[in-house]
Amino acid sequence: MWMSAATSSDLIRQRPPPPSGPSTVLIGTLVSRLSGAGVAINLFVVSDHGMAPVSEEIYLADYADFSGVRVVTTGTDVKIYSTDKAKLDAIYQRLEGQGP
User: Residues 33-58: what's their mean pLDDT?
Assistant: First the structure.
């Protein structure tokens, strides 16, 4: 979504052109077919930019102690599991504001 602090009349003048291309056609087809489903459907389209080059790696273990918790990662996504809320809070406090 494109956002700006400008007035609504400014937004109309500054709005980027609508997207086009194969993905737009596919999403249009999906929306058309879903609209005939007879139920309310919310559709969220997101992009993770997963193919963008990485300029700097961050090692979370350099910032916090992860012993005693379960860490699951897919490379760009990290999930930290524990039944010990104090441990999770401590990790959060150590990680908050870190990184590039």
Answer: 75
Residues 41, 35: Cα–Cα separation, whole Å: 8
Query: What whole-number distance in Å separates Cα of residue 69 and Cα of residue 84?
Result: 8
**Percent helix, percent strand, percent coil in the chain, to nearest 5:** 35, 10, 55
* Six token digits for residue 69: 């918790």
Give 14's DSSP letter.
Answer: H
The CA–CA distances, whole Å, from 5 to 9, 14, 15 equal 11, 12, 13
Per domain, the residue ranges of the chain are: 60-95
Separation between Cα atoms, residue 65 and residue 90, nearest integer Å: 9
**∠60-75-53 over CA atoms, to 5°?**
100
Is 0.85 surpassed by the pTM of this model? Answer: no
pLDDT digits (tens, 9 = 90+) for 74-88: 777 889 999 999 999
